[in-house]
Write a structure and sequence with these properties.
Blueprint lengths: L1 H36 L9 E6 L2 E4 L17 E4 H12 L4 E7 L7 H14 L5 E9 L1 H7 L4 E10 L12 H6 L3 E7 L7 H4 L5 H25 L4 H9 L6 H6 L5 E2 L2 H11 L9 E4 H6 L10 E8 L2 E2 L7 E2 H13 L3 E10 L1 E3 H15 L4 E10 L1 H4 L6 E4 L4 E3 L3 E7 L1 H6 L16 E2 L3 E2 L1 H26 L3 H7 L4 E3 H6 L5 E2 L2 H11 L6 E5 L5 H8 L2 H13 L1 H11 L1 H4 L3 E4 L8
Parallel strand pairs: 1-4, 1-9, 2-3, 4-5, 5-6, 6-8, 10-13, 10-23, 11-12, 13-15, 15-16, 15-17, 16-22
Antiparallel strand pairs: 7-18, 14-24, 17-21, 18-24, 19-20
Helix pairs in contact: 2-3, 3-4, 12-13, 16-17, 21-22
Keywords: Hydrolase, Membrane, Protease, Serine protease, Transmembrane, Transmembrane helix
Pfam family, one: Peptidase_S49
GO molecular function: serine-type peptidase activity
């Protein structure tokens, strides 16, 4: 019997060891597969550069979301800078004959689509063709695809061309119903990040700024679509108002599409354009694979470094979003790197922690003393996102960037009412007058409110001070256009909040010029996670939970849920943060 149990135990141990060895062997195979995937790409003659659903256009390496079983090129994350450079290179590449846009639901921000669109428009100057095809086409995808020479739609397809709208969600009644108290202190009548906890409807000030912002963005995007499709402005408005794109025959009638054909017919049409025979293969190459077919040596020579800062601003040292400890290290490394002659700081952030923003700004100010620092704005550069730009030698914004929101607020949640309703109360014993100025059960004391108000006002004055220094305007001038108001990049240029309207690529070129570089490479920071690092990050319990919930309820609903329950959104801290996002869905 003893021998029997020994054998069973030995077999169990052997199975466990075998499973562990197999698991690590599997991971190593995945890593080497991912590493080797991109080194053997060859661009064949008569190739068509293809923008499709296999490519995610991202603004920063920290936005990469490669899952445990999804680290291949099939869902390649491509930096917008690399995408623009690829399209520019394809313009003069004899192996690339044209571009095919085949993305029904483009995964990219509004400024990223702008940059892609402008790059493709420039590509067309080469005389090479640009075609687009769609099935169920989102508004964002049509905005990009409309730049094509010809737009083809599936006979049972649709184009969701509808204009822009925003829906502001309010939680005041929810908080009152369940006994959740929220003490709010803010500076700026336009600082609407806290409105959902204070009101049941949108304020006139917030409605004014949202209306102006949406109309600025829609005027810019709709005029480009109308011009590309050769549709009169008034007629285009009628098409959008009437949702004609939802019916394929009406989309064709009102010039949103040139022809209704099946995808196979579309591919055959491209083959005819390339003078290919029926038995010859149509060579399509994605942006990701095309970028992988060439590479620059980042290890030697003079460099312009692009430091990407994407997401909300927090303290700490996590990889995703903008965590101050992590970014302080990045900035100091760039400051000490002799190969880096200039830095472009790419900001795509709605803001966040005032303290963390201040820490990052200080380090950038030290960096600026040693080498040129140019700032480029992506989709967002608001509140803390705008604050950390105030060390720049020059600021570039995209026309549709959400810019400014110079304002500060503090949110203090407490649960006294709900606790009392459920038989929970608390007494306080303390040594000093304000040892317990805030409690999650008893709320905030009147003196605590006055103290936090002073802190908010002090932080706002510090915010405006740095803006006056960088923008060379008076306190009164900045205060007049501040107050938490968000502006489009176009208006931000008009009122002096930015220096130029331009892309990340424009900012890189200017940085090189300011550093006196004639020949240089471009290096991206922070470096992307290796597949191995990504695998272990994906095993994090919080990451798994977030991904599961997001997949179940959808990304938009998850963002609403975050406003209510995410700890970092409601923690007692002074904030520089924007309340909403604008997307061309």
């Amino acid at each position: 019997m003893k021998s029997f149990f020994k054998n069973v135990l030995a077999n169990i141990v052997a199975i466990v060891i075998l499973c562990v060895v197999f698991f690590f062997f599997f991971i190593i195979m995945l890593v080497f597969s991912a590493m080797g995937n991109e080194k053997s790409v060859v661009v064949k003659k008569n190739s068509v550069l293809t923008i499709n659903l296999k490519t995610n256009i991202i603004d920063s390496p920290t936005e990469e979301q490669r899952g445990l079983f999804n680290i291949s090129e099939q869902n390649k994350n491509v930096l917008i800078y690399d995408a623009i450079e690829a399209i520019s290179k394809a313009k003069t590449d004899d192996n690339i004959r044209g571009i095919s846009i085949e993305a029904d639901d483009l995964n990219a921000g509004v400024t990223q689509i702008d940059d892609l669109r402008n790059a493709i428009a420039d590509f067309k100057k080469s005389g090479k063709f640009v075609y687009a095809y769609g099935n169920a086409v989102s508004q964002a995808s049509y905005y990009l695809g409309s730049v094509a020479d010809q737009y083809y739609l599936n006979p049972s397809g649709m184009i969701e061309l509808k204009g822009l709208a925003t829906e502001v969600t309010f939680f005041k009644d929810f908080a009152d119903k369940y006994g959740i108290g929220i003490e709010v202190i803010r500076h700026g009548k336009f600082k609407s990040a806290v409105e959902p906890f204070l009101r049941n409807d949108i304020s006139p000030e917030n409605k004014e700024q949202l209306s102006t912002l949406l109309n600025d963005i829609w005027k810019n995007t709709s005029s480009k679509m109308a011009a590309s499709r050769k549709i009169d402005t008034a007629a285009f408005r009628t098409v959008v108002d009437s949702l004609y794109g939802m019916i394929p025959e009406l989309g064709l009638k009102y010039k949103l599409a040139d022809k209704l054909i099946q995808k196979t017919e579309y591919d055959q049409l491209i083959k005819s354009k390339l003078s290919l025979k029926d038995d010859e293969k149509l060579n399509k190459i994605s942006l990701g694979k095309y970028i992988a077919s060439y590479s620059d040596d980042e290890n030697s020579g003079d460099k312009v470094a692009v430091l990407y800062a994407s997401g909300s601003i927090y303290g700490g040292d996590e990889y995703n979003d903008i965590h101050s400890e992590k970014y302080i290290k990045y900035i100091r490394d760039l400051q000490d790197n002799d190969n880096v002659k200039a830095v472009v700081f790419r900001i795509n952030s709605p803001g966040g922690s005032a303290n963390a923003s201040d820490e990052i700004l200080f380090e950038l100010q030290q960096l600026k003393k040693k080498k040129p620092l140019i700032v480029s704005f992506g989709d967002y550069a608001a509140s803390g996102g705008y604050y950390i730009a105030m060390a720049a030698d020059k600021i570039y914004s995209e026309p549709n960037t959400l810019t400014g929101s110079i304002g500060v607020f503090g949110v203090i949640p407490y649960f006294k009412d709900i606790a009392n309703k459920n038989g929970i109360r608390a007494d306080i014993v303390s040594t000093n007058a304000n040892s317990q100025y805030y409690s999650s059960l008893n709320g905030v004391t009147p003196y605590g409110v006055s103290l936090i108000t002073r802190s908010v006002e002090s932080t706002y004055k510090r915010f405006v001070h740095f803006v006056t220094q960088n923008r060379k305007q008076t306190f009164e001038q900045i205060d007049n256009i501040g107050g938490g108001r968000v502006w489009s990049g176009t208006r931000a240029k008009q009122i002096g909040l930015v220096d130029e309207l331009g892309t990340l690529n424009d900012a890189v070129k200017f940085a090189a010029q300011k550093a006196g570089l004639k020949s240089y490479g471009v290096a991206s920071y922070p470096k992307s996670m290796t597949p191995f690092e990504q695998i272990f990050k994906d095993l994090n319990q919080d990451e798994i939970s977030e991904r599961v919930i997001k997949n179940k309820i959808g990304k938009s609903n998850y963002e609403i849920l975050q406003q209510v329950v995410e700890k970092r959104k409601l923690q007692s801290e002074i904030k520089m943060e924007m309340p909403y996002q604008i997307k061309i869905n």
